[in-house]
């Protein structure tokens, strides 16, 4: 239900554009495909992924000789679901700490404003509700506001937070947090990091150092590097994914603010293009508005 509401704008916009594209047409021809291409690109599916989808539909048109425009919805739904399956992303799995990985260290990256702090707060809430001990680390030390905001979430969720003064070394905060987490017998440690994309080399150096220092406490940390992207920023989100994946190994994605955008197609494009699973989607500002991403539910909700 939250998902349906969260995707409402994207869906309405997509289908109104789609119905304009096929208005007065009974069969899927080149003109309809051109229009469809535009609809997909304008929904931020991304050019490469759009081309893949169009090629698949062209393939079906060629095979079936005739495809009515009223079947287009169903075919799109199938092809998008296939595409997402092939990228092997987004099978919703409830979080469990893998064997021998306690404390589980989750490092969160992303630029300021994308919803990184909010996502960390929502995650901490989910983990805590599962009965897990959570500790937060404020290693995004560049802005005082980032530390304060994380503190606000720590208070709201009622979990401990480790922080230092603004401007302190992110690696040092991460180190302290892991030590504190180990001492407190934490199950999950969430480290907030790098909120700015200064330049690629600096970003890489900073993240590499944070990782190296964390490994002094927990040998195989981080167990997961989660990149947070603002789903309403379209091509910026693609660009940020490009830069962060170049700077560090990113294992999973959280795409936020899908409730505020008509461009939810970004989820399809980003997971396809970067071959990184979208694990979470943000569909509102509230503490409960973070969902474990499930591609089947996503496609269903979109084409329902
Ligand atoms: P950060 O700078 O990346 O840490 O960003 P914040 O977590 O402070 O979030 C920036 C703004 O985006 C805040 O006003 C959040 O309430 C809002 N926000 C975060 N996630 C979502 C979401 O999924 N939906 C909506 N509508 N707003 C969100």
TrEMBL record:
GO MF annotation: an example: GTP binding
Keywords: Cell membrane, Cytoplasm, GTP-binding, Hydrolase, Membrane, Nucleotide-binding, Receptor
InterPro entries in the record: AAA+_ATPase, P-loop_NTPase, Signal_recog_particl_SRP54_hlx, SR_rcpt_FtsY, SRP/SRP_N, SRP54_GTPase_dom, SRP54_N_sf
Broad class of enzyme this protein falls into: hydrolase
Signal peptide start and end residues: none
Biological process annotations from GO: SRP-dependent cotranslational protein targeting to membrane
Main location: membrane
Membrane topology label: Peripheral membrane protein
Primary role: Involved in targeting and insertion of nascent membrane proteins into the cytoplasmic membrane. Acts as a receptor for the complex formed by the signal recognition particle (SRP) and the ribosome-nascent chain (RNC).
Subunit text: Part of the signal recognition particle protein translocation system, which is composed of SRP and FtsY.
Descriptive protein name: Signal recognition particle receptor FtsY
Organism from which the protein derives: Aquimarina mytili
Taxonomic classification: Bacteria, Pseudomonadati, Bacteroidota, Flavobacteriia, Flavobacteriales
Gene: ftsY
